[in-house]
Amino acid sequence: MKIICIGRNYIEHAHELNNPVPAQPVFFMKPESAIIRAGLPFFYPDFSNDIHYEVELVLRISKVGKNINEKFANTYFDAIGIGIDFTARDLQKTCKEKGLPWEIAKAFDGSAPTSDFIPKQAFKDIYDINFSLVKNEETVQQGNSGMMIFNFEKIISYVSRFVTLKRGDLIFTGTPAGVGPVQIGDELKAMLVKKNMITLSIK
Length: 203
Ligand code: MG
Hints:
This protein is α+β, with helices and mostly antiparallel strands. It has helices spanning about 10-15, 90-100, 105, 150-160; strands spanning about 5, 25-30, 35, 50-55, 55-60, 75-85, 85-90, 110-115, 120, 130-135, 140-145, 170, 180, 185-190, 195-200.
């Protein structure tokens, strides 16, 4: 199982990090060890002093596919959840400046807490899903799937040109504006259509 993450998929988030708005999706990957199981905390790693939260909608891939046509891409995922793409922003900044890969900043253990999944048929309209992140009882990020630069189908089609998608793979679909740091002692809640799907302590 693999985790694919889309970067810069919301215009205001691209702007807040001074990144150009991409003409094609940008993606990177995290390993399975990035997942945090429900109920377990996130342990602040010793290699960073600037861990940021990024709340994202997550697709669960339901069948194998390669070079998937955008027209049929919606048949390749069966459920939607929510996750946090933890990022060591200090390490990422150094990687960007030196033109190095992002793995140390993005793919570390615990960097992808992920909720349970909701069958996509349970959503009224998957192109109009509200989600948000609450830090210490304050809403810090709000997004809607309709605000994505590249929609679910475009993402699946594009990624599958390069990487075969398999049942159980997850795709983090990018974060809206409002990313920011966490500190030890913080509590994060990830909300999907007003339902609290993840409660996570930072330790
Ligand atoms: Mg992200």
